[in-house]
Design brief:
membrane, transmembrane, globular, transmembrane helix, mainly alpha, about 450 residues, 21 helices
Length: about 450
C-alpha cells in the first residue's frame, strides 16, 4: 500500500461507513448490496496494513467462511451481503476518538493524573492512587488512559528496581483498565453484548458497577498490602507536591455529570427511534462531544486535538477492519450451515446446569486469549452459539459473563493490544505480564460468573 493511500484511509472508511449508517434509516436493499460490495475492497485494502496476527485470524475466518458458504450452496452474487453485519462496530470505533479528544481538550486527564505525581511514602499507597487514577481516566478515554498512566509511573518510579517497576506497572494499570471498562457504554465488548442479548444497558449497569467495585476494591487492598513494605523513592528530589483536592474532585464530578448526560441521551434516542445500542452510541458521540467542548469553551483545543487524533486512529484501523469484516462473513456463513448446531451441542447438554455454561464461557475466553484470538472474535462466535439458550437461561446472566470474561483477558492476552502495549512501554516479556495477572483474571471472571449465576 503506497503512503498516499495509507494516509487517506480515513476517507475511504468514513465514506463507506456513512453510507451504511444512512442506509439503516433508508433500508434500501440496493444500498445494502453496494455497501457489501464496497466492504470487500475495504477488507483487501486493510489486509496489507494489518498486523501479522490479525492477518492470520482474518484469513482463517475467510477460508473457513468460504468453505461453509460453498457447503450451504448459496449463490455467488449474495456474497457481499454477508460482509455487513459488523459494520456498526466499525462505525462505533471510528467516532470513539472524538469522545477521548473532548476529555483531553478539557484537561481532565492532566488534573486527575496529578494525583499520581503527589508525594507518597510507600508503594502500597502509590498502588491505590495509581489504580484509582487509571480507573477514572479509562472509563472516559479508554486505551489512551493506559498509555498516559504508564508513562507517568515510569517517570515517577525511575529510581526503583526494574523488577519492581515491571511488576507494579503491569498490575496496577492493566487491572484498573480492565475493571473500569466493564460498565462503560463506550467499551465495544459492552456494546456488543447489549445488542447480542437484547437486554437493555440500564439493566446491566448496576450489576456491572457492582462487579467493578468488588474487583477493584479487592485488588487495591491486595496491592496496598503487597507493596506496603517497599518505600517509594521519587525520581526527582523536589518539594512535596500539594494536590488541590477540590479542583481534582470538581473535575471528576464534571466527568460523572457528563457521562450521566451521555447515557441518558443514548438510551433516550435508542428508545425513541428503536435503534440498537451500538448505533445509538455511535450517533450520539460526535454531536455530544462538540456540545461538551462548546459548553467548556474549549472548541478550538477540541478541534485541534480531535481532528489529529481521529485521522490517526482511523488511518490505523486496519486490524479491526480485517477482524470485523472477516468475522461478519464467517458468522453469517456459519448461520447457514448445520455446523452451528454442532458447536451448540456442549452448551445445550449443560442447559440444566447453567453454572457449567457460565464457566464454559469464561474458560473459552481464557483459552482463546492464550492462542491470540481477540475477545471481539470470541464474543462474535459465542453470541451466535448462545442465542438459542436465552429462552431457558436469563440472557442478563449470560451477558454478565460475556462482558467480564472478555475484559478479564485484557490483563492476560499475550497478543492483545493492552498487554503488548505494556510490554513495549516497560520492555518486559509479555508472558511475565500474563503470569502476574492470571490470578486477577480468574478473580475478575469468577466474580462476574457468581453475579451472573445469582441473576439466573
Amino acid at each position: 500500500m503506497n503512503s498516499f493511500l495509507k494516509q487517506r484511509l480515513y476517507v475511504v472508511y468514513t465514506v463507506i461507513l456513512l453510507i451504511y449508517i444512512a442506509n439503516t434509516f433508508i433500508a434500501s436493499e440496493v444500498i445494502s448490496y453496494i455497501v457489501g460490495s464496497l466492504a470487500i475492497p475495504m477488507l483487501l485494502l486493510s489486509f496489507a496494513g494489518a498486523s501479522k496476527l490479525f492477518r492470520i485470524l482474518g484469513s482463517i475466518f475467510i477460508v473457513v467462511g468460504t468453505g461453509m458458504y460453498m457447503y450451504s450452496g448459496l449463490p455467488f452474487y449474495q456474497i457481499p451481503l454477508y460482509f455487513t453485519s459488523t459494520m456498526p462496530l466499525l462505525a462505533f470505533l471510528t467516532v470513539l476518538p472524538w469522545m477521548n479528544s473532548v476529555v483531553r481538550a478539557g484537561r481532565f486527564d492532566r488534573r486527575i493524573n496529578e494525583l499520581m505525581k503527589a508525594n507518597v511514602s510507600d508503594l502500597g499507597k502509590l498502588y491505590v492512587r495509581s489504580s484509582f487514577t487509571t480507573y477514572t481516566l479509562c472509563a472516559f478515554i479508554n486505551l489512551s488512559a493506559l498509555s498516559i498512566s504508564q508513562e507517568v509511573l515510569l517517570e515517577n518510579m525511575a529510581k526503583m528496581k526494574k523488577k519492581i517497576q515491571d511488576s507494579f506497572i503491569s498490575q496496577t494499570t492493566l487491572r484498573a483498565f480492565a475493571v473500569a471498562l466493564c460498565w462503560s457504554p463506550m467499551e465495544i465488548m459492552v456494546a456488543m453484548t447489549v445488542d447480542a442479548t437484547g437486554v437493555s444497558y440500564l439493566s446491566y449497569l448496576p450489576w456491572l458497577l457492582l462487579v467493578s467495585f468488588i474487583v477493584i476494591t479487592v485488588d487495591m487492598v491486595w496491592g496496598s498490602k503487597r507493596y506496603k513494605s517497599l518505600p517509594y523513592e521519587p525520581a526527582h528530589n523536589r518539594a512535596t507536591r500539594t494536590i488541590e483536592s477540590s479542583v481534582v474532585a470538581w473535575k471528576i464530578t464534571k466527568l460523572v455529570i457528563a457521562l450521566t448526560a451521555f447515557l441518558l441521551i443514548v438510551v433516550g434516542i435508542g428508545n425513541a427511534y428503536q435503534l440498537n445500542f451500538i448505533l445509538s452510541v455511535t450517533l450520539v458521540i460526535l454531536p455530544f462531544s462538540f456540545c461538551w467542548a462548546l459548553i467548556m469553551n474549549r472548541m478550538r483545543s477540541f478541534l485541534a486535538i480531535g481532528w489529529g487524533t481521529w485521522k490517526h486512529r482511523t488511518n490505523h484501523m486496519q486490524n479491526f477492519v480485517v477482524l470485523f469484516l472477516s468475522l461478519a462473513f464467517f458468522s453469517s456463513s456459519l448461520n447457514e450451515t448445520p455446523f452451528l448446531q454442532m458447536i451448540q451441542q456442549p452448551f445445550f447438554a449443560a442447559a440444566d446446569t447453567p453454572l457449567i455454561i457460565l464457566l464454559l464461557i469464561q474458560a473459552t475466553y481464557l483459552l482463546m486469549s492464550m492462542i491470540g484470538v481477540h475477545p471481539v472474535a470470541t464474543i462474535g462466535i459465542l453470541a451466535e452459539v448462545l442465542q438459542p439458550l436465552y429462552t431457558v437461561i436469563n440472557p442478563l446472566s449470560i451477558g454478565m459473563v460475556l462482558i467480564t470474561g472478555a475484559l478479564a483477558t485484557a490483563t492476560v492476552g499475550a497478543y492483545g493490544v493492552t498487554v503488548t502495549m505494556t510490554s513495549m512501554n516497560t520492555m518486559q516479556n509479555p508472558y511475565r505480564i500474563v503470569l502476574r495477572n492470571m490470578p486477577f483474571a480468574i478473580l475478575y471472571g469468577g466474580v462476574g460468573t457468581l453475579i451472573g449465576y445469582f441473576l439466573l
